[in-house]
Fold each of these.
Amino acid sequence: MNVTRREFGRLTALGVAAQFAPALNAQSGKKIGYAVIGLGRIADHFMRGALLTGNSAITGLVSGHRDKADKIAAQYNVPQGSIYSYENFDEIAKNPAIDAVYVALPNSMHAEYTIRAAKAGKHVLCEKPMALNVAECESMIAACKVANVKLMIAYRCHYEPIQLKAIDLIRTGKLGKVQVIESAYGFNEDAGEWRLDKKLAGGGPLYDVGIYCLNACRYLTGEEPTDFSAYASVVDHDGRFDTVEENLVWTMKFPSGAVASCSTTYGAPMDGYFRVHGSKGLLECTSAFGYENVRLRGFYSGTRIDESETTPDPYQFQAEADHFSNCILMNKEPQSPGEEGLRDLTYITRIYRSAGIPI
Ligand code: NAD
């Protein structure tokens, strides 16, 4: 990750560089042990990323499929006694090798497992979207506060160097005043996926991938949106979109007057990108929300920029795990706490309302 000492100083001043700080474990030797709940696609990226850190380890697995859990346990040296089912999950309370959980389940299960983990005295790293609705987010935050455990939402882009570079260029005024942002992210979703079932997913592509555009507009401007308008549609009447939207476009206005227009879909391969138009230039980020090849191009104040991140996947998950473990070891608040996930759910609710979709 190419962050120079000078850049690091600036990012530290912005409060966005904690993930580059050396972990306290250099002194204590302690690694944060994670129990991974839900052994699907994203869990695989996270486990491989955690392994690359010096401060995190996989010490527990929670799955409904014992054969799958056994295979992964062998890969990560997780003892048989640290493999749990959804039924006996609460017994992690008695396992001192588990400091934290990583919730990598369908969205509808995030609240339940975050609250059960907090009650078991474990810190929680929960995947995005934080939960199905604002009320669930609030109960997750409350449960973690009562149990005095940390809660971080796995917004990996907050820990990605190219994104941090874009934030830095904007915060330091190089781009001038942000006027307009465009952002999009989507893909073709297969029939039969839990993401197409509103009960499990909460909603369609906005919950799943549009949330990256929403979140990016917020961290790029450093502002909270105040006004929303949105349209949703279904083009493919083939049964996939009986309960969730296929396409959604929305606009947002920020207190400075900056405006954003965003699109998301489950019906087309849509590369994740953002374009920030400032009074002194343009920043365009491609593959912005992917796992690798994030590229930032543009110009500002007479300077051209073309930078790409060449570190392969799972570097973003490594940075994310390193950051949360560091927060636990040093008793610091994560850069993307539960409140950050709650804000996005608040805005998602307003976007759906504007599009006439009940939530
Ligand atoms: P997945 O379908 O690959 O994995 C989900 C896991 O949950 C599976 O192991 C499955 O067995 C388990 N599960 C338990 N109960 C289930 C049920 N009732 N229905 C379906 N699966 C059930 O999903 P995924 O892509 O890994 O997504 C998991 C979470 O991670 C979601 O919240 C998603 O939004 C999030 N995610 C985040 C990123 C990221 O880049 N941060 C990327 C993909 C997914």
Note: The pocket of nicotinamide-adenine-dinucleotide is lined by residues 38-43, 64, 104-107, 127-128, 154, 156, 194, 200, 208 (CB under 6 Å).
Amino acid sequence: MDKILIEGGRPLQGKVRISGAKNAALPILAATLLCGGVHRLRNLPRLRDIRTTKTLLYHLGATFEEGEPLCIHTDDLDSFEAPYDLVKTMRASVLVLGPLVARFKEARVSLPGGCAIGARPINLHLTGLERLGVKIELRHGYVEATAPRLAGSRIHLDIPTVTGTENLMMAAVLAEGRTVIENAAREPEVVDLATCLTGMGANIDGAGSPVITVEGVRELRPMDHTIMPDRIETATYLVAAGITRGDVTLGPCSPEHVEAVMRKLEEAGMQFTLTDDSIRAVGGEVIHEVNVKTMPYPGFPTDMQAQIMAMMALAEGQSIITEGIFENRFMHVSELRRLGADIHIEGNTAIVRGRPKLQGAPVMATDLRASASLILAGLAADGVTEVSRVYHLDRGYEAIETKLSALGAKIERAKE
Ligand code: EPU
């Protein structure tokens, strides 16, 4: 297994290329199941989660022609089952449920278990599908879904679940009549999926707002789509510039997607210069403390909570960071403490008392964004930080050590 070694203390300087968005690519890959033909996809990030999804599509009968664009053939699907072995490595596998049941009227998908950041149930995906006429049974750890006929309906989500909204949108595009999803997730990845589905011939209105209306169509055509830039990777490199007091230009990216993060980083003393598709981020001499509460988009993303906490560990004063989405997303705290951070947890709130310095140490992480926060802390710490269990990072950050080295970081991957 690989680990990453970082010798901290160098301000990052230069340009970094932002990859395609993992969390847009995953539902869009699942959407290739909605109709047969040759789908064309550009700007897919090279990540472990993308490989896992391709393995799942292959298992269902899809074939691939590698290249740019990636071509995916979905004429000859011969299975409707997402097996436990794949779903347990990646919860987002559940995104095949909506498309499979829409096209084939049946699907069998392993029920994802809990994960490192919380229980993460999929009850809202399932009750939403039931509203569309899908019969759901839970048997032997699998969701078995059958639907002789899908009919449009009004679905009110108790929580604006991101993958739930995506699953339901994908099921609704081939249902008869109109579906209205209320309290829908507004995340840009939902909008990218809606844009892709619209290009396939779907009729969707309101993506990006809390009410999405889908008029079902009889047929779809294969997609030809370019995945949006990754806003969480973008925001992670903004923090990398801030925590090292660097000067980094990032792109291509969508500055409006990281508005909430930039506002907090400005409060912390950073400065930004924007174009339509790039951000120049300059770190301040001093890191000011900021209070953060994670919320659904357009609020501050939970996927950036661990990274901003690493930066606040070096702030002048005390920050209060509240996790508003997941119940157990503070696993990075005990590892940040090993680097010398002063963090106290009470329920879903972390009180971070900034310190002038962190010191390098061996650390490990149990999820993707927690790993990113340890890399960021390592970039600013004195001495060497050794981050193990790098496979978490490889799920969501393309070539992170290559990109950071090009910015002047002293970082390398080694075998454990
Ligand atoms: N929830 C329910 N019932 C459901 C669905 C969700 O109670 O049926 C709860 C969850 O337990 C959680 C909240 O609703 O407390 C929000 O979860 P959501 O369903 O929105 O999360 P998700 O769709 O499973 C996506 C991203 C996550 C990101 C969250 C929140 C993908 C593939 N994953 O997950 O990304 O943290 O939205 O923005 O899009 C990551 O990339 O590191 C990552 C974890």
Note: Residues 22-226 form a domain with the UDP-n-acetylglucosamine1-carboxyvinyl-transferase; Chain fold (CATH 3.65.10.10).
